[in-house]
């Protein structure tokens, strides 16, 4: 029964995985850019992205959706399995980063306050030794961010290999159409390759498939606009 349910929801799951990956990538990258400048990240932002067992955040839900789709008995696709591994790894690295961010913010700030009250040679020596631990937390965060960025980039390459088998997925096409600016930011120079592996010499198919999904949702005006864009692209080809 569960496997049949997974199969029936696969088009939604594929759409959800790409959508949530793109959203998480941008949320995390904003924090990473802050770290590049200021050597800190916002603990509360990471906490919200991850969530908790009883109230899962976006990244946690992404991991779970990936496990449902790629760990089912009917899924033996290598690139899907590897994509699932990468998404799980990102989740756990982000968990570690969140804990380090908490230590840096709470215990790091407290350490600096205590340092202002240092007394005597022994106190200064001990603070110097303990300060090295604080610095190690910062370096740990740097390594975690480097790993997450690397695996995020690997995920983009894996999507290029995995998604072509879903070239007729209307929900996927609609996401690519509705959130095109987001997808372009995430895939950057690989965006054209993404559209090419999905739709080949007929990029207008993305708009036509998106229009089908919009029609089913009752968005007739938006569907007509998508079809017009498809005609414009076909004429200019």
**Uncertain ranges:** none
The percent range for helix content is: over 70%
User: DSSP strand (E) fraction?
Assistant: under 5%
Radius of gyration: 23 Å
Domain module tally: 2
Strand segment count: 2
User: Major sheet: size, sense and barrel closure?
Assistant: 2 strands, antiparallel
Mean pLDDT: 92
Could you say which structural class the secondary elements and strand pairing correspond to?
mainly alpha
Tell me the number of helical segments per DSSP (H or I, 4 or more residues long): 11
State the end-to-end CA separation. 46 Å
Give the overall silhouette: elongated
- Major beta sheet, strand line-up: 1-2
SSE order: HHHEEHHHHHHHH
Description:
With 237 residues, the protein is an all-alpha fold. It is 82% helix and 2% strand. It is built from 11 helices and 2 strands; from the N terminus they run αααββαααααααα. Helix 2 packs antiparallel against helix 6 (120-162), helix 2 packs across helix 8 (180-187) and helix 10 (204-216) runs antiparallel to helix 11. The mean pLDDT is 92.
Layout of helices and strands:
Layout lengths: L1 H7 L1 H29 L4 H8 E2 L2 E2 L1 H13 L7 H38 L4 H43 L7 H9 L1 H8 L3 H9 L4 H13 L3 H17 L1
Antiparallel strand pairs: 1-2
Helix pairs in contact: 2-4, 2-6, 2-7, 2-8, 3-5, 4-5, 5-6, 7-10, 10-11
Brief descriptors of the model:
mainly alpha, 11 helices, 237 residues, single chain, 2 domains
Concise summary:
With 237 residues, this protein is mostly helical. Helix content is 82%, strand content 2%.
């Amino acid at each position: 029964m569960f496997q049949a349910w997974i199969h029936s929801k696969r088009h939604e799951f594929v759409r959800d995985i790409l959508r949530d990956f793109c959203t998480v990538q941008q949320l995390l990258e904003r924090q990473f850019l802050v770290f590049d400048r200021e050597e800190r990240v916002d603990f509360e932002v990471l906490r919200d992205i991850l969530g908790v067992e009883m109230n899962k955040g976006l990244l946690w839900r992404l991991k779970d959706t990936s496990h449902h789709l790629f760990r089912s008995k009917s899924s033996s696709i290598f690139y899907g399995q590897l994509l699932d591994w990468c998404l799980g790894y990102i989740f756990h690295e982000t968990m570690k980063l969140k804990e380090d961010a908490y230590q840096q913010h709470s215990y790091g700030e407290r350490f600096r306050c205590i340092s202002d009250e240092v007394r005597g040679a022994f106190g200064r020596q001990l603070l110097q030794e303990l300060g090295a631990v604080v610095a190690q937390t910062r370096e740990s965060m740097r390594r975690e961010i480097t790993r997450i960025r690397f695996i995020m980039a690997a995920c983009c390459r894996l999507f290029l290999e995995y998604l072509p088998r879903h070239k007729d997925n209307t929900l996927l096409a609609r996401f690519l159409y509705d959130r095109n600016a987001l997808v372009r930011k995430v895939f950057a120079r690989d965006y054209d390759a993404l559209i090419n592996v999905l739709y080949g010499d007929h990029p207008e198919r993305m708009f036509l498939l998106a229009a089908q999904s919009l029609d089913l949702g009752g968005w007739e005006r938006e569907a007509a606009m998508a079809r017009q864009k498809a005609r414009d692209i076909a004429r200019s080809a």
